[in-house]
Amino acid sequence: MKNNPPPSQNLMVLFILLLCLITDSLSCSPTSPRNKYHISKYIRVSCRQTLYPKLCQKSLAKYATEIKTSPKLLATTALLVTFNTTHSVSKRLRKLSVNRALKLKPGEIQALLECVEEVSDSVYELRKSIKELNDSRKGPEFELRMSDVQTWVSAALTDDDTCMDDFTTRGKVKVLVRRFVVRIARLTSIALAFINNYAAV
């Protein structure tokens, strides 16, 4: 039987992770060479199970010290990375929608506004998922909690796809939005893969 860290320790680790993600500080991962190889191997092997292993490794490698070999922390970190990136994209899309210099056509404006709404929904769903995943503990409610997390993250992925479906015509704006949205969709897919693995442990 595995010994799970106390809730207070989990919260402290998650606080450090969130601080690292917000500041994007490389100093958050002071790993010794020997331990770094072992931990990086865990992340590398885990990332191979996803559809986007290179993006997975790139986005999670700097948090190897905090993740160690914990399936829960791996899933939580991937979810935090996804949330922060999606939140950033949401703000960028809002700025694009009011940028008069782009001289957007009415159809492009409408598609962009709908995309902003979809990505905002995704941010909301990812935020709920982070809290629920953090509160998850092995026990009677574990399966229900994880089912909720899986549903919300899957919904966030659907929102990202719907955003791109709103653009029925080609143009520079669609290309730019696609670049942003494809990245967050892939990060969401990675997070969901790790959440599914943790739920099955």
Describe this structure in words.
GO terms for molecular function: enzyme inhibitor activity. Residues 1-27 form the signal peptide. The structure is a single chain. With 201 residues, the chain is mainly alpha-helical. The chain has a single domain (7-200), classed as Butyryl-CoA Dehydrogenase, subunit A, domain 3 (Up-down Bundle). It has helices spanning 7-23, 33-47, 53-60, 64-67, 71-97, 106-135, 142-165, 172-200. The longest helix is centred in the middle third of the chain and has 30 residues, at 106-135. The radius of gyration is 18 Å and the shape is elongated.
Structural class comes to: mainly alpha
For CATH, the homologous superfamily is named as: Invertase/pectin methylesterase inhibitor family protein
What percent of the residues sit in helical stretches (DSSP H or I)?
Answer: over 70%
Q: How many angstroms does the end-to-end distance come to? A: 12 Å
CATH architecture: Up-down Bundle
CATH topology: Butyryl-CoA Dehydrogenase, subunit A, domain 3
Major sheet summary line: none
Provide the β-strand percentage band. Answer: under 5%
pLDDT averaged over residues: 81
Q: Tell how many strands the DSSP assignment holds.
A: 0
Number of domains: 1
CATH class: Mainly Alpha
User: How many helix segments?
Assistant: 8
Task: Write down the overall geometry.
Answer: elongated
Assembly type of the shown chains? single chain
State Rg: 18 Å
From N to C, what is the helix and strand string? HHHHHHHH
> Which runs of at least 5 residues are low in confidence (pLDDT < 50)?
1-13, 19-39
